Automatic annotation (TrEMBL):
Compartments, as annotated in UniProt: Cell membrane
Organism: Curtobacterium luteum
Keyword match Signal: no
Main location: membrane
Record membrane topology: Multi-pass membrane protein
Ranges that cross the membrane: 31-50, 57-76
UniProt name for this protein: Uncharacterized protein
Family: Belongs to the AmiS/UreI family.
């Protein structure tokens, strides 16, 4: 699961970089960020549910969960034009 989320984070960083360079429209990258953030959050919740309270497993996914929240926020910000 960690490798999947790492690949998704790399793809989001690539798209965000291309957006900053003006190659990809901001609204398109917003949709991609919402998609990546949602997938990461769903995967983290699935791991947390299957961990049965195992503290090392929960600590291992905490960083990925925060990245998912960040990409979700950035995507919603780009779509809603908040900032």
């Amino acid at each position: 699961m960690a490798y999947i989320c790492l690949i998704l984070s790399g793809a989001a960083l690539l798209i965000n970089g291309l957006t900053l360079l003006g190659r990809v429209p901001g609204r398109d990258s917003g949709v991609f960020n919402v998609l990546i953030g949602s997938v990461q959050l769903v995967l983290c919740v699935a791991v947390a549910v299957s961990a049965d309270g195992s503290l090392p497993a929960l600590l291992a996914i905490s960083g990925t969960f925060l990245f998912g929240l960040t990409y979700l926020y950035v995507g919603l910000d780009a779509l809603a034009g908040l900032g």
